[in-house]
Design goal:
The chain is of the alpha/beta class and 481 residues long. 43% of the residues lie in helices and 14% in strands. A seven-stranded mixed sheet has the order 4-10-9-8-7-5-6, with helices on both faces. β8, α12 and β9 form a beta-alpha-beta unit. It is globular. 43% of the residues are buried. Bound molecules: pyridoxal-5'-phosphate (PLP). The site of pyridoxal-5'-phosphate (PLP) has 14 residues, from α8.
């Protein structure tokens, strides 16, 4: 019997009852490889015709054949035609091959084929340049020399290092919570924690903000708990949904503080008020806020004096803290519960000790120093002011994220390519499914280390490209805080 995964892998791609590939084929030139592959796949499905999903044996699907007339799927052609489709839609992802230049952040060497050039990075999530901070590097070198490369096991079996324990204490203190729990990434921390809590609490209903990150959505889906999506940043809608639920069922409200693509900020206090009214737990993703906001870098909740109101605060070590890893913080009981039941925590090798040491050094530094945060905010303001003065269409928001709205995937990619090749500026285009179709953008993230000259060059380059491309200049569209 095929598992759910196998079944969906087979049928999500091209179920016998799915609309024929006409729409897809129509987007491709009739003679293109992609169109031919799709025709072959369609012919294959037509031949399978009457076979119902449950009658297809996974073993047969695995026996790939490229023989003409074969009944089995031509996997390679399928992959290639799907990739062709992404290219045609202008949302095929091309990674910039960068070599970060330590001590010269945010500058890097970009390699393209055989050539290379120095570029200025304007889209890094190493928001404060902590990935190159001397205290972080020293701590990592020391831990590497002392403990070696890897952790040597899962947290349960030989992999818990003293550096992990110290880092968890540092994180609990950062958010004013009793305990913290480390994960290998922010994605895994969301996926594992939400997935575990929602699955293990009998009858749990999860109320998820419509703008939540993929890692939260996947975790909630994985739990198979009932999921209700409330309107983005809308406590009234949340209240309506919570009011419709049986007061006795466990409820978990999951949302973010700073939303990574629009840069808008959640009304945390109001959401907590509503959650409290209905006896719901709250889970706040502060991935794009930790290190950056609050007197000690504890995020928006710390800045607004709200940390104590959240049941769980989740964060990453990979963005403003400049290293890698993720975590949750909360009561001793909730962290212990996730530690004890989450497969995404239990069954994986612990973070390398040097990573834990570097992250702890970064957090310690940012607890004591606000200099990076102040320079960061000043540069964000300078970039916004410069681009706004030129009429470059920005999405206004109260955070450090500066989205330049292009609203077309092909144009967005072209501007990004031109900025890189002609101006030595790297800003990755952001397309569907990261953002909705029609809202494609260039997401600029100024760092404290961009100089005045860097900012002036960025603004000039955008202005030049906007003129050469004949793109509309506009008044800002405001995203409510
Ligand atoms: C809101 C949000 N949560 C979680 C994550 C995942 O964090 P990490 O990159 O540490 O896996 C991201 C990543 O960009 C994110 O934007």
């Amino acid at each position: 019997m095929a598992s759910d995964l196998e079944m969906s892998t087979t049928y999500d791609i091209a179920p016998a009852s799915a609309p024929p590939d006409a729409a897809t084929t129509a987007r491709l030139p009739a003679s293109s490889k992609g169109a031919k592959a799709l025709r072959r796949t369609q012919a294959h499905l037509d031949r399978l015709g009457a076979i119902k999903p449950h009658e297809v044996r996974p073993a047969a699907a695995r026996e790939a054949s490229t023989e003409p007339g074969s009944l089995t799927m031509d996997y390679e052609s399928f992959f290639k035609s799907e990739l062709d489709r992404l290219r045609q839609e202008g949302r095929y992802r091309v990674f910039a091959n960068l070599e970060r230049d330590r001590g010269n952040f945010p500058h890097a060497t970009w390699r393209d084929g055989g050539s290379q050039r120095k570029v200025t990075v304007w889209c890094s999530n190493d928001y404060l340049g902590m990935g190159q901070h001397p205290e972080v590097l020293t701590a990592m070198h020391e831990a590497l020399d002392r403990c070696g490369a890897g952790a040597g096991g899962t947290r349960n079996i030989a992999g818990t290092n003293h550096y992990h324990v110290m880092l968890e204490q540092e994180l609990a203190d950062l958010h004013g919570k009793e305990a913290a729990l480390l994960f290998t990434s922010g994605y895994v921390s969301n996926w594992a924690s939400l997935g575990t809590l929602a699955a293990q609490m009998p009858g749990c209903v999860v109320l998820s903000d419509a703008g939540n990150h993929a890692s939260m959505i996947e975790g909630i889906r994985h739990s198979r708990a009932q999921r209700i999506i409330f309107r983005h940043n809308d406590p009234e809608d949340l209240d309506r949904h919570l009011s419709s639920l049986d007061p006795s069922v466990p409820k978990l409200v999951a949302f973010e503080s700073v939303y990574s693509m629009d840069g808008d900020v959640a009304p945390i206090a109001e959401i907590c008020d509503v959650a409290d009214k209905h006896g719901a737990m709250t889970y706040l993703d502060e991935v794009h806020a930790v290190g950056l906001y609050g007197p000690r870098g504890g995020g928006i909740a710390e800045r607004d004096g709200l940390s104590h109101r959240l049941t769980i605060i989740e964060g990453t070590l990979g963005k403003a803290f400049g290293v890698v890893g993720g975590y949750i913080t909360g009561s001793a009981a909730v962290c212990d519960f996730v530690r004890s039941f989450a497969s995404g925590f239990i069954f994986t090798t612990a973070l390398p000790p040097a990573v834990a040491a570097g992250a702890a050094a970064s957090i310690r530094h940012l607890k004591a120093s606000s200099q990076e945060r102040e320079r960061h905010q000043a540069n964000v303001a300078a970039v916004r002011a410069g681009l706004t003065a030129k009429g470059i269409p920005l999405l206004d928001n109260p955070s450090h994220i500066v989205p330049v709205m292009v609203r077309d995937p092909v144009v967005c990619k072209r501007i990004s390519d031109r900025l890189l090749a002609e101006h030595g500026i790297y800003v990755q285009p952001i397309n569907y499914p990261t953002v909705a179709k029609g809202t494609e953008r260039l997401r600029i993230t100024p760092a404290p280390f961009h100089t005045e000259a860097d900012v002036a060059h960025l603004v000039r380059s955008f202005d030049t490209i906007w003129a050469e491309e004949g793109l509309p200049r506009s008044v800002q569209a405001r995203v409510p805080a």
